[in-house]
Amino acid sequence: MSHLDNKVFKALGCSTRLQMLEILSDSETHITGMAKKLGISVPVAAKHVKILEEAELVNRTRFGKTDILKINTSNIYTILDRFAPIKSVDVDKGTTLLDALKKVSAVEVKQIGDRDAVVATDGDQGFYIYEVDGSFSDKTVNECTFEKDATVKWKKLEPITKMKLNINIKKE
């Protein structure tokens, strides 16, 4: 594990810092406001923020004498990627991604419109996307074929709320 990974785990290992990240997930705030919301002193809040900054989980922007904090979740996602199992499969030239997947996992496919979509891998239902050698593809799993060795990152789109949007219809 890298030095940064260790810092991220350290930062996430404290309930106060987790609460800070939860607050920042709703909106940007300043250290004084953060301390007030958590019922802690500003110096204590600043020490926790420093640990979050060292783990690159928080970005700080200075406006005059005020520091505004904003969450940065990219390192959390990077660390979670490390826990993905690595499987190897030998296939013939021209094999589709779907056929390669079937060799290492139980795959459930459903036709959606005119396309086949994987709706479950090893019983884990959801929406899936994939990258081949670091690039997303617009091909279906049946259209994606392999002519040379490649690394595929098979990703489940997790139902994590990025934003809640209340739609209000104007009254006439």
Summary tags:
three-stranded antiparallel β-sheet, single chain, alpha+beta, 172 residues, 6 helices
Sum this structure up briefly.
This protein is an alpha+beta fold and about 170 residues long. It has helices spanning about 5-10, 15-25, 30-40, 40-55, 75-80, 95-105, and strands spanning about 30, 60-65, 65-70, 95, 105-110, 115-120, 125, 125-130, 135, 145, 150-155.
Number of strands: 11
How many angstroms does the end-to-end distance come to?
59 Å
Tell me the strand percentage band. Answer: 25-35%
Major β-sheet profile = 3 strands, antiparallel
Task: Give unreliable regions as ranges.
Answer: none
The ordered string of helix (H) and strand (E) elements is HHEHHEEHEHEEEEEEE
Whole-number average pLDDT?
88
The strand order across the widest sheet is 1-3-2
Over all CA atoms, what is the radius of gyration? 22 Å
Shape: elongated
Describe the structure.
The protein has helices spanning 3-12, 15-26, 31-38, 42-54, 74-81, 97-104, and strands spanning 29-30, 58-63, 66-71, 95-96, 107-112, 115-121, 124-125, 127-132, 135-136, 145-146, 152-157. The chain is α+β, with helices and mostly antiparallel strands and 172 residues long. The strands form four sheets. The protein has a three-stranded antiparallel beta sheet. Helix 3 crosses helix 4 (42-54). The longest helix is centred in the first third of the chain and has 13 residues, at 42-54. The mean pLDDT is 88.
